[in-house]
Amino acid sequence: MLLLVGLGNPGRRYADTRHNIGFLALDEIVRRQSLRAGRSRFHAETAEGPIGGDKVLALKPQTYMNRSGDSVAAAARFFKLGPERVIVFHDELDLEPGKLRVKTGGGNAGHNGLKSIDQHIGNGFIRVRLGIGHPGDKSQVTNYVLSPFAKAERQWVEPLCEAVGEEIPHLVAGDAEGFMSRVAQRTGTNR
Q: Does the keyword tRNA-binding apply (predicted)?
């Protein structure tokens, strides 16, 4: 069993914001991999089913970003999963828009969702960093991440999330390099 976690904030107000790109990517995984929508549990919206040879639970915490760890820890405890069986999709200011990187562990760079998960399960989980770019001024970060994507940004947001949804079997199988390469090919971005 693998736990796939999309980070974001619940509610219409945040639905299309940059901070919610983790939710958007997870929605595409659920749709493109035909996962069955599950009941609301672990303070989250869930879906489950197989991807490749692994059973997965897709989790969208409904606890708001800064308490995402509550939801992730509840699901991980229930299924007796260590952090290495948890894959988290999140927005990344330090990557150009449309870029994607996968890494295991590391710091949280001030990301409240990652910080919360670190506190609850440790930092050995896999991170899928979805680049949203930086506003250029540190004082503008909060407004930037909580603002909706501009219409022009949809040209890279949708293809990125669709590529993640299609290529996720590679990451689930442990092929992070192949996953990153295939997403880059589909989106026309250089790794």
A: yes
